[in-house]
Amino acid sequence: MRLKDKVGLIFFILTAILAGFSAAANSSLLAWLSVPYYLTLAFLYTRRRPASRWNRTGLWLGLIAAFLPMASYPRTIPWPLTLFGLAGYALIFWSLLALGRSFGIAPADRGLVTNGPYRFVRHPMYLGELAFRCALVAASLTIGNIALMLVMAAFQVARIFLEERIIDGYEDYIGETRWRFIPGVW
After folding, report:
1. Cα–Cα distance, 152 to 69 (Å, whole number)
2. Whether 32 contacts 6, CB under 8 Å
């Protein structure tokens, strides 16, 4: 295993442990789902393809977004928000299955993925992550949570633009899959 892969494995395992502590303190289904999410990322990170090109700025944006906490966590989450969060979580895992060995934190060219949810929008994993986070923020609506959510969204939008410039064949993909994020909107 390469040093970068070991560092990524440690990063995601640490993030999973922190998510576990947070879930134990604020027990909800959505909070607990963060643990297997980060463990899945740890596994995929160690199995990823080498990148032909990557972007260091995007790496930092991704790392900060992964660690970006909420100002406060909900004790309970109403069922409509739980369902919305689960839909985001399902989109994340569908995206991860489609990405497979092309997964990475930094915007990088590990091969263009156009199957699964990538047939409908060009950045479904970011959409799932933001939907998941929106459910948590809506359940604990504070100025701090809204501010952190907006920062995370800004980081994801910046990563979108970096990815679109670095992946080979992306111009053709734009012609096939029109929407970046939300069909009919953007």
Report:
1. 10
2. no
Compute the distance between CA of residue 156 and CA of residue 88 in angstroms, rounded to an integer. 15
Return all residues near 63 (Cβ < 8 A) that are at least 6 apart: 11, 105
Whole-model pTM? 0.88
Q: How far is CA 26 from CA 70, 133, 141, 168, in A?
A: 12, 15, 15, 43
d(CA 20, CA 66) in angstroms, rounded, equals 14
Which backbone phi and psi does 180 adopt, to 5 degrees? -75, -45
- Convert the pLDDT of each residue in 78-102 to its tens digit: 999 999 999 999 999 999 999 998 9
CA–CA distances in Å: residue 35 to residues 19, 116, 174: 6, 24, 33
Contact (CB, 8 A) for 106 and 55: yes
